[in-house]
Amino acid sequence: MATSATRLRPNILIAGTPGTGKSTLAAQVADSLGFTHIDVGKEIRENDLHSGYDEEYKCHVLDEDKLLDHLEDRLNATDGGYVLDYHGCDFFPERWFDLVAVLRCDNTILYDRLKTRGYPEKKLRENVECEIFGTLLDEATDSYPADVVKEFQSDTLEQMEENAEVIVDFAKNWKPSSVSDMES
């Protein structure tokens, strides 16, 4: 079982409220580094890692145990080099990640993004409230060491490009203590 002390390349989790740009950023970072991108939502759907479908929220209900079992061999591997994106993060083992990047977004921009996606009103409202209260950032800071969690603003394409550069630089210069030196 690899840890940040034994992994050859870092593993990165990009988390945040739906609509903050996680999947886009994760794909860009993975492509730039030659890492493997894992869109956790897609993994859940394509591998039946759920306990059913929630009609009210129009999404699958995550089975955390199935998902963790499905990812375990890859994330425990000594090679590392994975970039995962998912809105939640508190159920992933701490040892899997060397950086947890939490994307934040202005509420008005987020509302418009989610409205464009056709989110039901209740789901849209709850996700915007989640962002207002910083729920996912709190979840990350409660679940991982402070030097592993970094907050990134993700309102514009320019910010996304800057975020990608910072994360790519982190990975290229990665050492177990390098997270705390990274500027966000």
Automatic annotation (TrEMBL):
Annotated InterPro entries: Adenyl_kinase_AK6, P-loop_NTPase
Superkingdom field: Eukaryota
Gene3D superfamilies in alphabetical order: P-loop containing nucleotide triphosphate hydrolases
Catalyzed reaction equations: AMP + ATP = 2 ADP; ATP + H2O = ADP + phosphate + H(+)
Record region (LID): 116-126
Spans annotated as NMPbind: 39-62
SUPFAM superfamilies hit by this protein: P-loop containing nucleoside triphosphate hydrolases (SSF52540)
One of the GO BP terms on file: rRNA processing
EC number: 2.7.4.3
Location of the protein in the cell: Cytoplasm; Nucleus
Pfam families reported for this sequence: AAA_18 (PF13238)
GO (cellular component) term, any one: nucleus
Sequence positions that bind ATP: G19, G21, K22, S23, T24, R117
Enzyme class: transferase
Keyword Flavoprotein: no
Keywords attached to this entry: ATP-binding, Cytoplasm, Kinase, Nucleotide-binding, Nucleus, Ribosome biogenesis, rRNA processing, Transferase
GO molecular function: AMP kinase activity; ATP binding; ATP hydrolysis activity
Purpose of the protein: Broad-specificity nucleoside monophosphate (NMP) kinase that catalyzes the reversible transfer of the terminal phosphate group between nucleoside triphosphates and monophosphates. Has also ATPase activity. Involved in the late cytoplasmic maturation steps of the 40S ribosomal particles, specifically 18S rRNA maturation. While NMP activity is not required for ribosome maturation, ATPase activity is. Associates transiently with small ribosomal subunit protein uS11. ATP hydrolysis breaks the interaction with uS11.
Family: Belongs to the adenylate kinase family. AK6 subfamily.
HAMAP family: Adenylate_kinase_AK6
Assembly, per entry: Monomer and homodimer. Interacts with small ribosomal subunit protein uS11. Not a structural component of 43S pre-ribosomes, but transiently interacts with them by binding to uS11.
Record protein name field: Adenylate kinase isoenzyme 6 homolog
Organism, scientific name: Plectus sambesii
